[in-house]
């Protein structure tokens, strides 16, 4: 790794730099044209934002629909394409009322008129105007119904009473046109809205749980980090003992889970309602209900038993290979012991990926909000030939449309545009997604190549640790950036293209879910499977190609070819050592996550008497519990990924060492004596002093 080098894949490096500059330019253009307020604030029929500061609508944060019956579905409401007047209001209606009734009683019930007119157009205060003209000009809604705000929009306050759909505890309402209608006329909107509202209720409770328990979640993740670091430090000295402890620890944790599930299953025996099935009770927002069913615990117990049996069988059949892998891990732990800084490099990769995600998300939002307000003619008469045509609100009253179509209005419809920039926004979004994938894969490739270079400098040191260069991690990072940016970008580009194709296939599959064309669905399924396999294969090739780049400094294609054929010549060793090592590291992640998870479970369920008073009151204790378990797994994965890269690098270096050297005085092996004994080679020749 310390041999003189030259720049590789220069053309790809230049293209990569140009693309980054173009990506920055795209972000600047999106920032100039975009307006995130279009996402944050709803927009009324006049193109004004509801709730925006320093405007007439500053205190009117909610969007109100004059005639919600004209809206076919909740999706239409959210997309602001409902063919009715929309106004910004400070609060939603809380009662039933019609304009006809309010107008008839405004002389002696001024309070009703004052309440009703806040849902009329700003400035309208003429209750003497005929009802027909008011409805035609849409000065006021023909009716108001009890509503509640959701997504900053007034939706009918649906509820069920004895299994009957109601609005404001009523099953009928007056539509303002002299008819009494049933609330089931809103059923199409009600079904979708109620599901979303239930999800919102669950989401609010989850958010509250996070707000209360975030401190304890961080403590759990810190414990996971300490356990992961402690494991990696001890692995250098007691790899075999620790891994067997880990293996039996995982078996013990799963065994405890099986016993706990059986205890809960047996404890619920005879309790009324516990024999119901999940199908019988349907979907419930209170997930504790499912824990009162015997079927739930029986399913958990069966799943855990299956996992337990699979792990035990794998240990029985792979016991000899596990011993070999443990010995290789000892060599890896020794390498990490000499280069401890590598344990913290995943933080650099995480920061780079976080920057990429943030830039992509911000650019996507600004691109999505780059449209200009588009206004369309909204007419009550179905035969109006100008209906749904674009219009200009400033000149609309001077046109003949209002004469030919009495009551027609020029109202805001959506955001769009006809300029060249607006026509290619979809292309810009695709480019944004593609460059994002390219940059993320480059950040991962840079991390793999940097770590491989550091560990390769350990392996190829003739006398360890005396010949290991100073600051091997930083030196490797500098070599990767200075000489091999083009090669890393080339590998990331190939992977990004395949991933973009997979994203497009997923999008097409989502769009075609409602179709009944079996052949198209089958073809898409085959393509998705093929590109998934291709992505996995490319990740494997790229990973080993980056190791070869770190060792020899050749271009990407040459390194990928040499790595592939080197692995094919040692395919048995790859299967025995590399994959078994991955399996053992995975068990280590499971044990760290499971151990911290069990501790978190006892804590959040108040089963640790010392900390019982410190446990926060939660809606769902599984929210912080799952967060701690998943977070602990990711923390362990970050540290263990360094270890996996170390083992892969040492293994590839070992294979290369066997092919280039023969153990003689002229061509001595660079591998350590312990690794030499593990793989059954002849005794090492004496090394030169």
UniProtKB/TrEMBL annotation:
- InterPro entries attached to this UniProt entry: Choline_transptr-like
Reactions catalysed, as given in the entry: choline(out) + n H(+)(in) = choline(in) + n H(+)(out)
Q: Where in the cell is it found?
A: Cell membrane
Read off the Pfam families from this record: Choline_transpo (PF04515)
Q: Name one GO molecular function term.
A: antiporter activity
PANTHER family (UniProt xref): CHOLINE TRANSPORTER-LIKE (SLC FAMILY 44), CHOLINE TRANSPORTER-LIKE PROTEIN 5
The UniProt similarity line reads:
Belongs to the CTL (choline transporter-like) family.
Q: What is this protein called?
A: Choline transporter-like protein
Gene behind this protein: Slc44a5
